[in-house]
Amino acid sequence: MRLSVKNLQDYLVQFAYGKEMQKLEAFEEWSNRAWVTGEKPTFCDMCNVPAFSGLKECQDAGCNVRFCDRSYCNESVVHVCPSSGQKSEFCNKECSCCQELGCDKIICIDCSEKCFICKFSHCKDHYVRLNEEIICNQCVEDASNKLKKRKIDGDK
Question: Rounded CA gap, 53 and 76, in Å?
Fold first, then answer.
C-alpha cells in the first residue's frame, strides 16, 4: 500500500477509535488493576491482550487456545449442535469446521467424528465406517490411489 495523506488519516482514525485503541485501553486497565491488586493476568492466545478473567477454551479437542472473545479479538464461532443442543465455542472457523476441503459445515464433538488415520474432525457427509473405525473420505481416496498404483506397478 502506498503511503498517502488519506491512508495515514484512515490509519489514525482506526487507531484512535477502532480495535487498536480498545487494545490499549485493555492494557491500561490491566496496568491500573495490577498496580492496585498485584494480580497477574493471563494473556489471550489470539490477540495477546491481558485478561484477568473470562478466557474461554476452544472446544476443538486438538486446540488448546484460550481466547478472550472481545470485539478486537479473532472472530470466534459459536455452534449449537443440532442433535444434542449443546453450545460449543471455538476460537476460529478453522477449529469449528469440517476438515474436508471445501466443506464449511460447523461441527462439534457431538456431530463430528475424528478420522482414525489423519485424526482430523469431519462431518457425517465426509467419513465412512470401516471395521468399526471412522475413516475420512480423503484417507479412503489416498489409500485407494496407493492400491491402484501398487497394482499398476505390480503388473509391469
Answer: 17
Per residue, what are the HEC states of 135-155? EEHHHHHHHHHHHHHHHHHHH
CA angle 105, 106, 107 (to 5 degrees): 110
The SS3 assignment for 82 reads coil
Q: Cell 502506498 identifies what position?
A: 2
CA separation for the pair 79, 111 (Å, rounded) = 11
- DSSP assignment letter at 32: H
Please write the tens of the pLDDT for every residue from 6-64: 776 776 666 666 677 777 777 788 778 777 777 777 888 888 888 877 788 888 877 88
Q: With contact defined as beta carbons under 8 Å apart, do 111 and 83 qualify? A: yes
Cell triple for 55: 478466557
What nine digits make up the cell of 28?
A: 491500561
Q: Is the dihedral angle over the CA atoms 7, 12, 18, 20 positive or is it negative?
A: positive
